[in-house]
Amino acid sequence: MISKQFKKSIIKRLKDDYNVACHSIRMDSKEHNRYQEYTLSCFIQHRPFKLSLILNICPVDSPNESYSFYVFAKPDCVDCIPDLNEKILYSDVVKAITEVRDVFSYLNSAYEFIFEHNTVTLISGIYLLSPSYFEIKFIKSAIETSSVVKVYDFINSGRLCTNINITANEIFVSPWKPYAVHPTFEKSSNLLSGDLVNFKANFAKSVLLFFNENCRTSDEYDDEEADYMSLNYQDLKRYLLVKKMTII
Predict the structure, then answer these.
(1) Tally of domains in the chain
(2) Contact of 200 with 188, CB cutoff 8 Å
(3) What is the pLDDT of residues 84-107, one digit of tens each?
(4) Model's pTM, two decimal places?
(5) What is the helix (H) or strand (E) element at residue 39, kind and residue range?
C-alpha cells in the first residue's frame, strides 16, 4: 500500500498544476504481478471523473528498490480537465490537422481526420521502497500523450492512420505502419514555439502512406514513397496540388 505522504504529494500536484481536486486514492482489487493500479476520484467544478495511478512494483525490473509511477487520464476523462487541454495545446494540434486535411482537397469530403487520445500522463516520478520506508525520490508534472488520428469514411470505420505522441512539448508523428520507418518521422515540432511545420509535413506523409496502402486499386492513390517522403511541407503542398490537378 502507498503511504499517506505519497497520496498527499499526488493530490497537491493535481491541485497546483491542473486545478484538479482529488478526494480519494484507492487500490483496485485486481492483482498484477508487475504493478499496482489505483483509482483517483476527482472533480472540477462539481464535475466528477476518475484518473488512474500505476505503481510499478516488480523487483526484477528494479533491483535497486527504485520504482516508477505515473498518473494518467483515460480518453473519456481528458476533456474533463480544461487546464490539461490548454497545456497540450489541443486546439493548435486540431487546427494543424484541419489544415492538412484541406491540403488533401482531392479526397472525397466524406473522409474525416479525427484526433483522439489513448492516454495522457499528467504526473510521473520515482519512489524508493524497502521494508522500513516508502519515499518519493522524484516527482514531476510533465504531460506525455499517446494519441492517434483515425480516418472516418463512408461507413464510419475509424481506421487508424497516424500515431501522435507529445513529450515535453515536442510533438512526434509516426505512421500506423510499424514497418514504415523513415528518418523524416524522427523530426518533431515544438508546441510552445507554435511552429508545427514538421508536424504537418509528417502527418501529411502518414496520410499518403495510409491511402496508398488501403486504396491501391484506385489511380488516385498510387504515389511512390520516394516521390514525396523527402519533401518539406511547402514542396509537399505543391506536390498534392499537382496531384489534384491531374485527377481533375
Answers:
(1) 1
(2) no
(3) 888 888 899 999 999 999 999 888
(4) 0.85
(5) strand 35-44
